[in-house]
Amino acid sequence: MLVCSCNFISEKEIVDTITALLDEDCWQLIVPAKVYHAMQKRGRCCGCFPNVVDIIIRTTEKYHAATHSTDDKIVAYISRLKEFHEENRRAELERRHQGHRAA
Ligand code: FES
User: How far is the CA of 30 from the centre of ligand 1 (A)?
Assistant: First the structure.
């Protein structure tokens, strides 16, 4: 399934990149820009980023469920990750809202 129509990136490519990043450091914070940078791509309209965030969360949960991570660490990490992405979403909405006011 195509996730990013600007860069023609499929969900499988994104999942594979996230998994490779997790193999390097399974507790690093992964954001869409980091995934795209690893694929040597850039967000253009960034309309796909909310979907990429969902893929990051799903892939990270599956990754840690399949490895020997303890449940306590997984729950704390996933909630931190969701909190971080939610803050970014709010900041992005504010930026867009302010952008409309200025225009
Ligand atoms: S749809 Fe991904 S950057 Fe535009």
Answer: 18
Q: Give the Å distances, CA to CA, from 47 to 1, 4, 15, 65.
A: 16, 8, 18, 29
User: What's the pTM value of the predicted model, to 2 decimals?
Assistant: 0.72
CA distance 21 to 38: 8
- pLDDT mean by block of 10 residues, the chain; 103 residues: 95 97 90 95 93 94 81 71 80 76 51
Q: Which of 59, 38, 44 is nearest to 8 (CA)?
A: 44
Look up residue 44 and give its two tokens.
């253009």
Ligand 1 atom closest to Cα of residue 46: 3
